[in-house]
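EI: anyone free to look at a 91-residue chain?
SC: sure, send it
EI:
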Amino acid sequence: MAGVFASSLLRLEVSVDDDGELHMSLALRSGDEIVASDGIESCRLGVLSGDRGEFLVLDGALEGLMGAFVRDANGTVTELSLDTRLHQRAV
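SC: here you go
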């Protein structure tokens, strides 16, 4: 699940800390250029039970938003859906 995901407006970076907790940081982008990331705090993600890869943003500016990790037929996470907007895994 950890990795970088991007859309035309956002770059999302999901990481796992030493305690196994998921975190997400975000930056606004324009094309391939990051235009704002200062002052945007990272947030914690709470994974919901079940096998659908759903999560809830637990704190920060996006607190309360729902999302999901989207997997391909092989089970590899290829996209992150945040509040119904898809972000492709960055290569």
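EI: The mean pLDDT is 90.
SC: 👍
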